[in-house]
């Protein structure tokens, strides 16, 4: 079997099964594990999968920069943002992540809602600048231009001085085993700190993020209090999360 044929077989298997186990695949194809691992390494370098111990998982397409992510699942993000906004209660302190879905949350907050939004995203803060009844706390730090959010030690220190009722989390991957993951190490630290300071963490996840993985873990999947995703997501895509006791809301 040619290298190109093996790689296509690997990608087809990954789409079908949701994971690759190198040892099993090597036995199935009658090839050495070293050969399979080399193929996985090369496919990972192309961004076509995420390597993990013993094999690979689907790579999240949501690791693109902020501008490119705006084109992904546009209608779904609007629906998720609207549903998340409607669930914020008067008087709550809510941490709102950066990203394109978080902007939709900000845009859909009810006009008479009185609450406090804490965010490290200048884009989210600007969306809320004209909301009459929402107090906005903007976390500062070094601007991570890829995601247009503040990161670094100054941001971490400010986050740890806040106690929030709810954190709306945006990540590039949610996977039952790999957990909540994102594509940048510093951003993962910031998201972890935000989650640790909130009584509840709810992930906002369009379809391409479910059962996918990125290089840096934010937290185990069991840290979630819930997932809000798009209505069209098939039941099999969320059943592993629901078996872990994580409520999934389709909108």
Model description:
Pfam families: DeoRC, HTH_DeoR. InterPro entries: Carb_Metab_HTH_regulators, DeoR-like_C, DeoR_HTH, NagB/RpiA_transferase-like, Tscrpt_reg_HTH_DeoR_CS, WH-like_DNA-bd_sf, WH_DNA-bd_sf. This protein has 10 helices and 15 strands. It is of the alpha/beta class and 251 residues long. The chain folds into 2 domains: 3-59, Arc Repressor Mutant, subunit A (Orthogonal Bundle); 66-250, Rossmann fold, CATH 3.40.50.1360. The chain has a 7-stranded parallel β-sheet, with helices on both faces. α7 links the parallel β5 (115-119) and β6. α1 (3-17) packs across α3 (33-45) and α5 crosses α6.
Estimated share of beta-strand residues: 15-25%
Alpha carbon gyration radius? 19 Å
Strands in their spatial order, largest beta sheet: 6-5-4-9-12-14-15
Distance between the termini: 44 Å
User: Mind summarizing the main beta sheet?
Assistant: 7 strands, parallel
Mean pLDDT: 93
Please report the number of helical segments.
Answer: 10
Specify the structural class.
Answer: alpha/beta
Compact description:
It comes from Deinobacterium chartae. With 251 residues, the chain is α/β, with parallel strands linked by helices.
Topology (elements, then pairings):
Layout: H1 3-17, E1 20-21, H2 22-29, H3 33-45, E2 49-52, E3 55-58, H4 66-69, H5 74-86, E4 93-96, H6 100-107, E5 115-119, H7 122-127, E6 134-138, E7 142-144, E8 149-151, H8 153-159, E9 164-169, E10 173-175, E11 179-182, H9 185-196, E12 198-204, E13 216-219, E14 226-229, H10 235-243, E15 248-250
Parallel strand pairs: 4-5, 4-9, 5-6, 9-12, 12-14, 14-15
Antiparallel strand pairs: 1-3, 2-3, 7-8, 10-11, 11-13
Helix pairs in contact: 1-3, 2-3, 5-6
